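Dear H.,

Thanks for agreeing to be a second pair of eyes. The structure we're designing against is below in token form, covering all 393 positions.
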């Protein structure tokens, strides 16, 4: 098979890129190793920045989002038994975020691609990307028990942290910067209306807790747990009791309990691979960078990468110039490192590091007090949380 752009992976990066290219009249093929049902069930974060929503709207993929997403104008931080609301619009000149699960974005984009009759193959396992440094890179994969090749003008690796695309960049030409955190998150979904209108990020001596939501009837909550935790060790009752303790605040607030429908443990990692390009192979989303979920940046960074890349590929098709493709890695990495810093900041400010000293705990509290008392400090958080504008072409 032959195509202009071969896309490996049908997470949000691969699917949004496919949609952007389709709209620009550039043909592409998406290869996904998993089956559709698996891809549509994967639970990920659920906060969309303005730029992500703009991108989905621009390609006609926001119909359900606009009908169902919850628009949030702030978050609450909790520590030392008190809560402080960070108001986004007043601190950022009107920006806000949308609560809409990544898995719903994925479902919407898959439905559109299939309705267009555009190529998207599930169960297509890629083994290798060859000739990335030539004019005709080739993707080798297995589909329906047969070995196949996809010959491309460009290949884009949207296949995540464990994918094959990153390994197609020679080890001598890439560098990975990484930090692994000494804690994980235990995430639950519960059939109970959220106990808050906006997300609550709680610092507590027993560890971090986050109250998020999926719909007016479904809550999503997280607890910091030690690495290696087995979710089976956490009964429903133990989870609710621990959440109660960590969210405790002076005043009348109460956490509603309900049936827990899913439990999973997520490790926390920060990682950036540079550069995000080798010849005609481009890396996007988690294939190039990972953020811990505390800043809710993963999906938004992936969307930003592919918006930049789609623009560069369209520019190449229209003008013959590869200037924007040549700038892709640098353009993305500037924004990526900012989001890495913000995610690291949120993570280390709110979590209880098992190796911490009392000195470090005092610094965390001092930083949270500062956000509560200085509009400048609060605006820094709000600007980063709601997302920096995309770079201009
Ligand atoms: C989520 O709703 O899953 C979520 C929200 C905010 C975060 C992380 C996860 O920072």
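And this is the sequence the design step returned. I haven't edited it by hand at all.
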């Amino acid at each position: 098979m032959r195509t202009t752009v071969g896309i490996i992976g049908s997470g949000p990066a691969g699917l949004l890129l496919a949609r952007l290219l389709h709209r620009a009249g550039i043909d592409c093929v998406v290869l996904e190793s998993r089956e559709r049902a698996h891809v549509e069930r994967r639970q990920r974060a659920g906060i969309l920045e303005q730029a992500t929503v703009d991108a989905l709207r621009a390609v006609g993929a926001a119909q359900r989002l606009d009908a169902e997403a919850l628009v949030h104008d702030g978050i609450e931080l909790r520590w030392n038994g008190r809560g402080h609301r960070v108001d986004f619009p007043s601190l950022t000149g009107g920006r806000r975020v949308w609560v809409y699960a990544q898995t719903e974005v994925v479902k919407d984009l898959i439905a559109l691609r299939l309705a267009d009759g555009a190529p998207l193959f599930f169960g297509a396992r890629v083994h290798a990307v060859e000739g990335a440094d030539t004019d005709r890179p080739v993707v080798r994969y297995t589909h329906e028990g047969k070995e196949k090749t996809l010959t491309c003008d460009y290949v884009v690796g949207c296949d995540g942290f464990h994918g094959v695309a990153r390994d197609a960049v020679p080890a001598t030409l890439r560098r990975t910067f990484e930090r692994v955190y000494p804690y994980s998150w235990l995430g639950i979904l519960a059939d109970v209306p959220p106990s808050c209108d906006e997300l609550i990020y709680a610092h507590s001596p027993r560890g971090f807790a986050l109250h998020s939501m999926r719909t007016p009837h479904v809550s999503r909550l997280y607890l910091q747990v030690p690495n290696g935790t087995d979710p089976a060790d956490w009964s429903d009752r133990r989870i609710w009791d621990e959440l109660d303790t960590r969210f405790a605040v002076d005043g009348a607030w109460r956490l509603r309990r309900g049936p827990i429908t899913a439990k999973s443990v997520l490790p926390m990692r920060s990682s950036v691979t540079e550069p995000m390009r080798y010849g005609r192979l481009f890396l996007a989303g988690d294939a190039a960078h990972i953020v811990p979920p505390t800043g809710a940046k993963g999906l938004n960074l992936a969307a930003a990468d592919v918006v930049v890349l789609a623009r560069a590929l369209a520019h190449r098709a229209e003008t013959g110039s590869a200037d924007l493709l040549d700038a892709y890695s640098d353009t993305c990495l500037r924004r990526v490192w900012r989001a890495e810093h913000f995610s690291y900041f949120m993570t280390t400010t709110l979590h209880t590091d098992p190796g911490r000293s009392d000195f470090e705990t005092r610094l965390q509290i001092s930083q949270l007090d500062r956000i509560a008392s200085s509009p400048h400090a609060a605006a820094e958080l709000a600007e980063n949380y709601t997302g920096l504008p995309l770079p201009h072409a």
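Two observations from my side: The two ends are 32 Å apart (CA to CA). The longest strand covers residues 175-190.

Warmly,
E.
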